[in-house]
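Input record (one chain):
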Amino acid sequence: MKILVAGATGMVGGEAARILSSGGNAVRALVRSTSGGEKVAPLKSAGIEVVEGDLRDRPSLDAACEGVDAVITTVSAMPFSWQEGNTFGEVDRDGTIRLIDAAAAAGARRFVYTSFPHSPEPGFALGDAKAAAEDHLRSSGIEYAILAANFFMEVWLSPALGFDYPNHSATVYGDGTNRMSWVSYKDVARTAAEAVSNPKAKNAVLPVGGPSIHTPLEVVTIFEKASAKTWTLSHVSVAALQEQKSAATDEVQEAVAMLQLGYAIAPGWAMDPTDYLVASDLRSVEQYAREVTQ
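The corresponding structure, as predicted from the sequence alone:
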């Protein structure tokens, strides 16, 4: 197969591109002209064709989609690409819609879109943009697979979001008792690579999570065991997160607050591994904890 991967300089897209290439597929990576050489060089070294394009430029997408059998996109303006003219509406909604239309016009058979679990009416800019792109994909006529990927452990269980494992402390959103799933970005990438051809992925919304369900407080206990240290905890209340959302001065601040609210209260984000497209050899929170604390 020939597969276009948009977002191949990111964690999930890059991993998916390498998986597909190592499996004998012809992989084409869509990168922007501003992409750093340190991100593009590993793709070329892996035998991946690199083409320049931009989700805001339809002709470049038509050229990138020419001759491909499937398209994967992991592109989002959240959080690093967000700036004026590069908003959620322009990238996550309009840009994704342009790519869907270009893929359909080029005769691609399947389109794999990485998203996250959300209600039909998310009520914030990032969620609304994702929902609009998903709706367009469903009505596009191309086969689709939408990946409802849960919380990435490498992001949410990291110092960047208050899970400071080097210093044995953690910020817990809410009371920490809601049960949910953490997933490795590598397993999301494996699912994306599998979804381009697996019949089970045809016209499906696929949950993507880890091998087990935990509460945030249970996760802290797992890290305490792995590090042989007692951790210091602090809590951010649901009310405080709601205030942060109301006080947000841009879309990224709003999105972070809303995702943290989901982290704190959303029971629907817990997942059942028996529903996964890729269910074997999933990276667990326990494995991740051992890797980063030792």
